[in-house]
Amino acid sequence: MDFRSYVIRRLLLVVPVLFGVSVLIFGLIQLFPPYQRAMLYVTDPRQMANIDEIIELYGLNATIWEQYITWINQVFHGNLGWSTVVGMPVTDAILTYLPATLELAIFATPIIIIGGIWLGTKAAANKDKFIDHATRTGAIIGWSLPTFWFGLVLMMVFYGYFSGFLPPERLSTEMSVLVHSASFTRYTGVNFLDGILNWEWGVTFDSLRHMILPVVTLSVVNVAFIMRLMRSSMLESMGKGYILTARAKGLPENMVINKHARRNAMIPVLTVSGYLFAAIVNGVVITESIFNYKGLGWWAWRTALMLDIPSILGFALFSGVLFVLTNLVVDLLYARFDPRVRLGGTI
Amino acid sequence: MKGLKFFFYHIRRNPLSIIGLVLIVTFAIIAIFAPLIAPTPEGQFDSYMIPRDGYASTPEPPSAEHIFGTTQGQYDIFYGVIWGTRTAFQVGFIVMGAVLVIGILLGSIAGYFGGIIDEIIMRITDIFLAFPPLILAMAVTIALGPSIQSVMAAIIIVTWPSYARVIRGDILAVREEDYIEASRSVGSSHLRVILRHVLPNSIYPVFIMASLDIGAVVLTAAALSFLGLGVPEGYADWGQMINFARNWIIGTSENTFAYWHAVTIPGLFIFFFVMGWNLLGDSLRDILDPRLARR
Amino acid sequence: MNKLVEIKGVSINFYTYEGVVRAISNLDLDIYQGETLGLVGETGCGKTVAALSILRLIMPPGRIESGQIIFYSNGDKPTDLLAIAESKIRTIRGSQISMVFQEPGAALNPVYTIGDQITEVILLHRKQELASKALITLDKLLVERDSLSTRLFRPARIIQRRLYQRMSDNPGTRLLGFVERTPIIRRFLWRLEKEAEQIAISLLKEVEIADPYRVIKQHPHQLSGGMKQRAVIAMSLACRTRLLIADEPTTALDVTIQAQILELLKRLKDEIQTSILYITHDLAVAAEICDRVAVMYSGSICEIADVVEIYKNPLHPYTRALLAAVPKPGKKLSAIKGFVPDPLDLPTGCCFHPRCKNARDICKVKEPIPVEITPGHFVTCYLYDGEKLENSG
After folding, report:
1. Does residue B75 form part of some domain?
2. Is the ipTM of this complex over 0.90?
3. Is A236 an interface residue toward C (CB < 8 Å)?
4. Looking at the complex, does the CB of residue A323 fall below 8 Å from at least one CB of chain B?
5. Which structural domain, as residue segments, surrounds residue B32?
6. What is the pTM assigned to this prediction?
7. Rounded to a whole number, what is the distance in Å from the CA of B169 to chain A's nearest CA?
């Protein structure tokens, strides 16, 4: 099918999926008693004293359909409930903790993608030689590592042993004070950027120093994954006829690999990059909890531990929706760039 | 005979596969002989609860009584990792088994019958796949109340969609083959066709996926326990043991590695267990994948 | 006629997990300038391996065990293609010797346009020429000094001029190599690409593609099988090859398209005076286009002769059986009894002896040597080895 119809079809598919996502979350909500469900509609701690009124107001004893309408209505108004753990509405909590996680993701994603692609290409091009075995072993180790354990070990070595060289959390105490003081404007909430924007380089370096371990922990497992995918994709690509043609044309080997094989091999890897986003959100929960790095993952963990229902389910809804939209963008980009899809005709 | 020749040729080329096999077999032996290796103390009813030697919070280093030492709350690490092996196998096999059953069932129905049934089932998988796995697992675990069963249920819920999709894809490919039409034309019922023709030809990739995934399943379960969302306190589970150790990684002021045993030992068990399955799955895939040139 | 390529005693083995496959044993073959030599044989007899060996494209687990392939290019001294350095043979691949494969769809890279793939080979091998052409255009532009645009771009054009001058004199310098590799500076060489595109368009016209300007911008999947194969042929002729190796180029196409491509090749052969090594399993096609035909069985040549001679007077039992096996209306089908031998376990002596009606004891023991029966007509068979047989008695 041609590009236009592909795009339309893809966009239309998003709707039922988003609907289904909301239904799933709603279903999980229904597993709780009315008292806890009422927490989803609370916007102010003082309201908690009048829980029965809330239950009445939002019809929490009514039929499922009505409850769903009520709930979805609230969601569209941005009200996801109140987070007892951090003492603010869930929506605010998400917005507050998002920049920290974004910071990690900004650094981790290019490392994962570029590192994975590069290692995968090298491994495939030198199949069965030392570098192939070395990277594959590295990949197997990376893929088998429990991220949480790896992070702890890293912290043990770099924070404990090298006394505080790479500390946990986002900022050291002094920088923290500086960031929250009046003279510092938090434009984005992303510390290293804010540091640059305020011309306070100390803040930038400090936040970068704190980010090294979490980013490494986050990246290792995912680099292994991308690398393995890239390697098998490259091997398949290199077995194709156009590679022989390229060699028969007299192209030097590195051009054969980089220009011809890799372009084709990257296509499946790029389609997977949508799932990479999910993997990062996954990893972020564990990583942030280990390093006490106060981002979305850390918040999600604490809320789960404290059985703060609105938060954990609000977060699940948020990541679900975000993930669906990210995949949509990735799929559309892929369609745009793969000429076989973009220009239609027989494949 | 040919298969055997290929098998040995492959082993020679790729020694890592033997390591995988050895690891899994070792763990299996540990799991089976757990009651002999780490006997449950007299009077304790539930073997899966780790015995505590007192209630002090500081972990103790390895000694004659406690071969691997104790962790926070004086839980015996040796007992914990040995019986934790059993937990790992249980979680891995039960979850994988359920995922395979559900995935193959729904995937086959979707793939074989196609049309609207296919669309509906695919949308359902899309919905489940719309969440980052850990987040959904966390949500489900909380909704069902923290316990090892909810952990398993959560992971099953998170994992089955990918399998359904893979099986559906394979069945779609197989369905168009001529022998299916031939079978139907002589009057075989749908069920017979599925069981005798479609499934045997499309099932290999799924099993390979499953063997590669057992490691991931165990890792996710450990992650949930580590976050404190899974098993009850004191249950023999590797993830939980690392959770106990997390406050002690800094060690004392003189010796940062004073409590290394509490962190490292359970972690190594997880690591080698998962690696064993990954290596095994990798080899299985290399052996069974027809696309890799048989050289 | 002068020789172009001389294959002498080439043996190639493939080392698989099941054992050693002797793909080619002691192959001797000569290709003359300007001729079209047909290489005929069943699937699996080693034709493609022989062809790939000329370009030295045998990849592991294949290994060229022995032999020489002497290439007589214009003016230069004869070179053994199996012995020269990798960098040298890369200059020959695609330019002096090029290859067309069986599946045009597989030969083209789906993510690049046809234009990209053709200009790729032109840019690789004809840099000097392209640079000279670009210089002419540049010089014309640099002479004008009137309009705003010429004055604006003048400095850039001067730099370009120096680069192209350097390139047309000596393309291999390190400076040029550096410029070619660096992402942004590389854009200075855009005129080369434009010139190459012009050549590509004229090539596409040569292969009778109707709308070359459009096809240049298209991707392989947008073309039909016949058009793809024409594009591949254009690609192989881009650098004035001396030898075009065509490995069953029409097998994957419809019969009508097959006829068109054959006509095209015949016409090109006359115009460009290139030699063609035409590999096929189809005797009729070989008769159409070839000047000489070599028949191959299990890795060695059984018989070579002029095309008319070999069809009128086939000598080797295998050739005879092949010709007899061609279905003729009214005649009973005759097949060659037996099976193509398993390459892992070739028969001793003459490979054909298990299936040969005239097999004798010596055929099972020792491989025969080629004997010239009439001028230019060689057979490898003990039936025609009269004197030798008496001597070894």
Report:
1. yes
2. no
3. no
4. yes
5. 11-293
6. 0.78
7. 16
